[in-house]
Input
Amino acid sequence: DAKTTQPPSMDCAEGRAANLPCNHSTISGNEYVYWYRQIHSQGPQYIIHGLKNNETNEMASLIITEDRKSSTLILPHATLRDTAVYYCIVRMYSGGGADGLTFGKGTHLIIQP
Amino acid sequence: GAGVSQSPRYKVAKRGQDVALRCDPISGHVSLFWYQQALGQGPEFLTYFQNEAQLDKSGLPSDRFFAERPEGSVSTLKIQRTQQEDSAVYLCASSSPGTTYTGELFFGEGSRLTVL
Output
């Protein structure tokens, strides 16, 4: 799986949009971009994923650049409960259920009141 | 249950003791993964099961680590002769091909092992 680069930490004011960047310049054509987050003392939680189109769900939006070498996770109205470590993961997904995840160190997002 | 359940949540062991960590995946999930997470680091892959078959154990750090899933549901991670460097959170995750094909892994809250 391709390697990703994320800033180690970021701050965001409560109620504002949190924009978390991720570089994945060696991504290949059949690799997806996944985002997970890990709140303190909990297991990682899936947020969103995409291949090349922008994606949105009830938790977040994912913007992938046209060349697919970077992406941004957007939390539109951050709350204190969004304080967590956010992991950007590039991964091939075959649909067979055998594909694991390779985590980096992620970005520690701190939402300030 | 509704989610992945792990027990115990916390385990303190003396160096040299054997420990066993249990994972109850989401009912019907075929795939099961174990990860190890050291303090301040991201989770690292240990091993993978598809039903009862252990298809990948490339991440197990030594032969003191052993995992099983004999009936294709509950899994146990066993660590023999624990060392201080084994202190970590051990995470279990399950997934199923399903119809959505999102590739989402569902994680438990982990078992925190402290070796004294």
Q: What stands out?
A: The mean pLDDT of chain B is 93. The radius of gyration of chain B is 14 Å.
